[in-house]
Here is the input.
Amino acid sequence: MQPQALDTIMEGRRSQPNQLIEVLHDVQQNYGYIPKEAIESVSQGLGVPLIEVYRVASFYKAFRLKPSGKNVLTMCTGTACHVRGSHLLLDHATSQLGIKPGEVTPDGLFSVEHVNCLGACALGPIVAENGSYHRHMTPAKLRKLIETLSRQKTEDAHHAKAQ
Amino acid sequence: MPRLNSYRELEHLRQRLREQRQNITTTVMVCGGPGCQASHSQAVIDAVRSELSSQGLDNSVRLCVTGCHGFCEQGPVIVIEPGNIFYCRVSPEDAFEIVYQTVMKGEVIERLLYEDPVSGKRIRTEAEIPFYKAQDQQLLSKHRMVDPHSIEDYIVAGGYAALPRVLNGISPEEIISEIKSAGLRGRGGGGFPTGRKWAECMEAPGDEKYVICNADEGDPGAYMDRGVLEGNPHLVLEGMMIGARAIGARKGYIYVRNEYPLAVKNSRIAVEQARELGLLGDNILGSSFSFDVDIARGGGAFVCGESTALMASIEGKVGEPRAKDVHTVVDGLYHKPTTLNNVETWANVPAIVLNGSSWFASKGTKRSKGTKILSLTGRIKNTGLVEVAMGTSIREVVFDIGGGGANGNRIKAVQTGGPSGGCLPLDKFDLAVDFDVLAEAGSMIGSGGMVVMDEETCMVDVAKYFLTFLQDESCGKCVPCRLGIDRMLEIITDITEGRGRMEQLDLLEELADTVSQTALCGLGKTAPNPVLSTLRYFRPEYEAHIKEKKCPAGVCKALITYWIDPDKCTGCGVCISGCVHEAITGEKKQPHIIDAQLCQKCGICRSECKFDAIQVV
Here is the structure.
C-alpha cells in the first residue's frame, strides 16, 4: 500500500465524518480493495471510530476487504437477467473455477462476484469482465470466456519466460 | 465560458449558440447509453467521428453522442436528422457508408434499417417504428439532440428556461401550487404527491434545508433513472434547482449508484458546468437565490432506496432506516427538513413550470398524471426504455411496444415494481399503468421496472429469487424483516426442491401477513408482495411443485431432467464436446443421450444446441 495515495484521497476531507463512504470508494478505486491499514488511517483522518469505519466498509456491498483476482467476473443477477437464466451462469462460473462468489482462485487469476443489477437489463443476461459488459450470455459462452482468459495467463507466462 | 449574471445574459447565450449552429446541416446522433455501450457503440462513435473528419465535414455535420434512445435491443442505434433516419445494430465498418451515402448524398442504406418482424418490411424513420409509435416520449425525447456532456446542447434545446421563471416572478408558494395542480406523484415507487411533500418541507421550521435526488435505482431489472440522469443530467439539475427554490434549500445532493459509473461521471460534469456558468452557486442569475449540489455515491445497498437509510448513507453512516414518527420533510438529512425525490420526478419539474400544470395534467388518468418511463425487459421481443402516458394498458406496453413473446413463447405474466411489487397474470393485462390500479391488483408501478415472463419462467422460482434478494438486502435491524424473510425463503426453498407440503402454503401466507404488518420500513413491509402475488395468481404452479414434484416451467433444478429429443437431434456432437460433466454420449449422426445420473443441469448443452433438441422436463 502506498501511503501517498491515501494522503491525496484524504485531502480536503480530514475531520469530516460524512465523507466516509466517498473516501472508501476512492480508496477502493486506488488499491482495488480496502486494506486494513487504510481503514486505520481513514479512521484517524476523518475522526470516525475504527469500528464504525469497519462497520460501514462491511455493510455496503460495493466495498471489498480483500484483493480481487486479476479478472473479475461480475454476474448480473437482476430480475431481467434472472428470468433469462443468469442463475445458470453464476452456478457455472463457481463450478468451473471452484470458488464461491466473493472468493479468488488460488492462482489469483479470477474472482467471481454477483451484483443486483448492472443496468443493461434489455440485453441480459449480462456478465461484466473487469467492467466490460458481455451481453446475451449463455453458460457455453461463459465457459469459453473463462477458458480464453485462462489461456491468456499461460501465454503471458510463456512470453515472460521467453524474455 | 463566463458566468451568467442575469436572465438576459442566459438568453443572449442561447441566441448566440443557436446562431453558431446555423451552418450545421446534418446531425448524426449515436446512442451512448448503457445498452448500446454494452453493444460496443463506442467503436461506432469513433469510426463515425474519424470518417466525418476525413471527409472534411467537421463544421457542417454534428456528431452528437446522446443518452439512451430506448430501443436497447437493437443497439448500437444511430438517428440522422433531418430525415429521422434510424439505423440499428450498426458496426464500425458501416461508418464509411453512413457518412458517404446518407450524410453526404442523402441516400438510405436499406440493410441498416429496422426490419418490422410482423410485416418483414424495412422501416425508414424512427417515428414509424412500432416500438416508438405507440409511445409518448416527453422526457426521453428531451435528450435526443443533447450530448449529456454539453451544457450548451441543453441550453440550445431550450433548457434552463424554467429556472429564470422561478427566480423572477413566480413565488415559492406559486411553484408548489403549480406542482400540486399538475398532480405530479413520486416516480420512485411510493407515488406520494410531490407538491404536498414540497409544501410540508417549505412549511417546516428551520433555515437550513436540503433537496436530494435519489439516483440509487436499486430495483433489479430497472434502469430508467440511469437513462434519464446519464442522458440528460441538466434536466434533473434544473428540476432540483426549482425544488430548492420552492422549499428554500441552499444545498442539494444527487445520491447515485456507484455501479453506474457513467451516471456518476455525467452528473459530476453537469454540476461543474452549471457552477461555471453561475447556474449553481451564490446569487444564481443575479438573484438572491443561492444553491449548490454535490454528488454522493451509494454503496450498493438496496435498503438505501428508503429515505431515512439514504440520508444516513449521505451522512457517511450505515444505511439503516429509522422509524419515521417525524417525516423527513421535517427531520431529514442532518436532522434538517429535506425533500427527497427520484430522478424521474425531478426531471418532470421544469416542463411543468414552463408549460403549466394543466398541460401536464392533460395526460394520464384521474389520479396518475403525466407519463411514466418503464424499463421493459425479460422474455419479450423488444426490450428497452419505454415512455407512455399513465393509463396506457399493460397489454399495449407488452404487445404493441414490446412486440410480444421472444421466440414465439407464450407470455404469462409481468412483474412490476421490483422486489416490492408483484406479478400480474395475462388476464390482468388490461389494467392500466396507474399508481392506484396496480396497487389494488396486488402489485405497484414502483420505479417502472416491467419484467415480462413466459412459459419458461417459474413463478415459484421468481418468488424465491425475490426472497433471496431481500434476505441479502435486509439491513437486519428489525426482527420481522430479518427473520421473517428467512423463514419464508426456507419454505419456498423446500417447495422448489421437492420437500414442500400443502400446509406450508398457509404458513407462508401467515408469515407474509405478519412481516408486512410489523416490519419497520418499506423494504420489510413490501417484502412479502412477490410471494403473495404469485400465490394469488399462480397457485397451481405451487401445487404442481408440491403435489406432483414438478416444475412446469422447467427451471427448478431439483425437479427437472434434461433429455435429448431424438427427432430433433442430428448427432452433431457439439453437446458431447461441450459437456464438462461427460454426461452425454452418442455416435456421430445418431441421436445422443444424456445420463441423468451424471447431468448437473448446468445448461451448457442447451445453450450450445442449434437444433433445440435438448429439452427439460
